[in-house]
Amino acid sequence: MGDRQRHDQLKVTTRSGPGRMLIAVYGIFALAATARSAVQIATRFEQAPLAYTLSAFAAAVYVVATAALAGVVSRRIAYLACAVELTGVLVVGAASLVFADAFPDATVWSDFGGGYLFIPLVLPALGLLWLRHTGRGQLDRTTTSTQ
Q1: The whole model's pTM is what?
Q2: Closest CA to 57 of 92, 95, 7, 101
Q3: What is the pLDDT of residue 7?
Q4: Where is pLDDT greater, at 17 or 103?
Q5: How far apart are the first and last CA of the chain?
Q6: Rounded to an integer, what distance in angstroms lies between the CA atom of residue 14 and that of residue 76?
Q7: At what angle do helices 119-146 and 3-14 cross, to 10 degrees?
Q8: Disulfide-capable partner of 81 in 2, 65, 117, 130 (CB 3.0 to 4.6 Å)?
């Protein structure tokens, strides 16, 4: 199997089964976080500039993760987006608890995503696991078919 065929097969594999649900949830978060941050920045940025800037950053991460998991951009970008999201949720989550005064308004990642049923905390872990699972499974099938 050539590199191009393997790449195309990985895209299809990532978008199949539970991957479709993962992409859908990421897409919903991308739309919601983008709309929320746009309204916050446009109407009351001076009230919580750090929180609203982090909301906009989270929105960008969700957009990139959605596109990458859907196969629009590379798998490496999907891994990076999920890792950045997980790091952001952990760092912002901890900071929002330790430095509560710096967060007069919540972000998607505040309190480890508690305002969103902790989905922002679980989503990147599921994304990373799914990428690993689909990549490893495809690699196993490729290796056995060429032997």
Answers
A1: 0.83
A2: 92
A3: 52
A4: 103
A5: 12
A6: 13
A7: 140
A8: 65
Contact between 78 and 68 under an 8 Å Cβ cutoff? The reply is: yes
Tell me the residue type at 12. Answer: V
- Each residue's pLDDT tens digit, 18-72: 889 999 999 999 999 999 999 999 999 999 999 999 999 999 999 999 999 998 8
Which segments within the chain are labelled E, that is strand?
Answer: none
Q: What is the Cα Rg of the chain in Å?
A: 17
* Cα–Cα nearest to 126, from 18, 28, 11, 8: 18
Handedness of CA 128, 60, 100, 111 (dihedral sign): negative
Distance from C-alpha of 61 to C-alpha of 88, rounded to nearest angstrom: 10
Residue 42: which residues within 8 A CB-CB, separation 6 or more? none
Query: Can you give the length of the chain in residues?
Result: 147
